[in-house]
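Exam revision sheet. Question 4 asks you to relate a sequence to its structure. Input first:
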Amino acid sequence: MYSLGEVETISKKAAKASGMTWGEAVEAGYAIRNLARFNLPNVEAFVPLFQELASGKLFRPSILYEIEPSDGKEKIGFFLGLLILDTRVSDTYFESENLEVKNVRFPLSLLGTLLSLVLNDVELEISWKGFKLMASAKSVIIKGRNFNPESVDYVCVKASYCRVKQTIEFKNRVFVNKSTWMYLENLAFQTYVPDSEVSRKTGAGSGNLIDD
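Answer key, structure tokens:
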């Protein structure tokens, strides 16, 4: 079992090594943490995405506006989630938003990204074939077992402002199988600065300890 902090930290580094920007990597780590909080598949939702980015089979969009929710082109759930957060529910006067998005890969990564809304006074409903989640700070209802498909034809997203007192209890530790954890560690290792005299002097390592 790993703490959510451990999972978020190593996932963030693995995301950066896979080809994401540091900003995207931070969001990916947070999305994985949110999935774990809600007792949903978490690391497993992102590892296939990391693998495709790292291998060059998939390229991150250079501009998020290239991903239009209604254009019918294939979309990657995580990047779509960032676009929705930045353009559809970021307004101070946001009240509600309904979206139906076609042709989404890694939809659970979309859900992980949007779960941050639930922690910020938003009631969220998201569904695809064989799965539906309805969540607020007060309750979580999950229907279906198709948690983590590689791709789905449609994803429906409904979000509405709903300020309620938080009463649900989140998970604080999560199980990650050994092979998955090793894959994350190997990716994360690529972000570490090699140990050298220069790196120690510039703060990458512990440096030379000198007593005054």
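Marking note for examiners. The first strand starts at residue 2 and ends at 3.
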